[in-house]
Amino acid sequence: MEANFVFASIFFRFGHMSTRKKIYFASDFHLGSYPLEHSRERERSIIQWLDAIKVDAAELYLVGDIFDFWFEYTTVVPKGYIRFLGKLAEIADLGIPITLFKGNHDMWMFDYLKKELNVQIVDNELELVLDNKLFYIHHGDGLGSGDYKYKLLKKVFRSRFCQWLFARLHPNLGIGIATRWSKHSRLSNNEDEKFLGEDKEWLIGYAKELESKQHHDFYLFGHRHLPYDVKLNPESRVVNLGEWINYYTYAVWDGETLSLEKWEKKS
Q: Which of 5, 29, 97, 147 has a CA-to-CA distance to 66 between 20 and 30 Å?
């Protein structure tokens, strides 16, 4: 009887894993953004989505700005997100690899999530071959021409010396400053995002520049907040993953097709 139960458990686990063929990409959850009650509601929807995809997910890629602010002190991390982090732990324990990109809001991720959840942390870009297709993945901040002010700030914020200085602040002060800053973001003020046209969308322009040097089948970005799927040429596409404040969009690769999809929120 006991042997049959063990065999059934093993069959269920590995048989279930054999159905995991899809690879999911999402970005810009901005958990913790102002107002907090909206963030908690968004967290519930994200967890519902994660519950739905864990059945067939082979891998999960979270492409930056998952948190509206994140800074790891030596013994302190921002409080909150406990249900979300618990769900990631559950997914990791199922044997589903998770890759987490640093965004412009959560670039101060070091080794806490790697140690706790065994996730892979990506600083900048990642080139990935899936089913003989080449993917270029980046959060999207600081790419393309222009925006020199932000590019300078990014270098400052990512410098180890500046991170060391910030870590000298008491967490109440450091995280408090970041929270007040968040209240002035474009998300908190619900600024309307509009597609500027292929010639003015800087991430499309950046993808065209890369494509002229090396072919990629897919370019995946976050950061822009506006979901779109644009053909560069018959064999190459640029996909922006959108965000989870207004759009609740994500991409899924099933081994043959990359599709941009929308999660329908549940009450």
A: 147
Phi, psi dihedral angles at 62 (to 5 degrees): -110, 110
User: How far is residue 175's CA from residue 70's CA, in Å, rounded to a whole number?
Assistant: 8
Rg (CA), the chain: 19
The amino acid at 146: G
CA distance 73 to 12: 41
Q: pLDDT, tens digit, for every residue of 227-261?
A: 999 999 999 999 999 999 999 999 999 999 999 99
End-to-end CA distance of the chain: 42
Residue in the structure block whose two tokens are 């950061």:
223
Q: pLDDT for 69-86, tens place per residue? A: 888 888 888 888 999 999
Task: Determine the 3-state secondary structure of 233 from DSSP.
Answer: strand
Domains along the chain?
Answer: 22-262 (3.60.21.10)
For 155-185, b/e burial (b = at least 16 CB within 10 A) is: eeeeeeeebeebeeeeeeebbeebbeebeee
140, 224 contact by CB (below 8 A): yes
Sheet order of strands, 228-233 included: 126-130, 133-138, 218-221, 236-240, 228-233
Cβ 118 vs Cβ 81: under 8 Å: no
H or E stretch at 13: helix 2-17
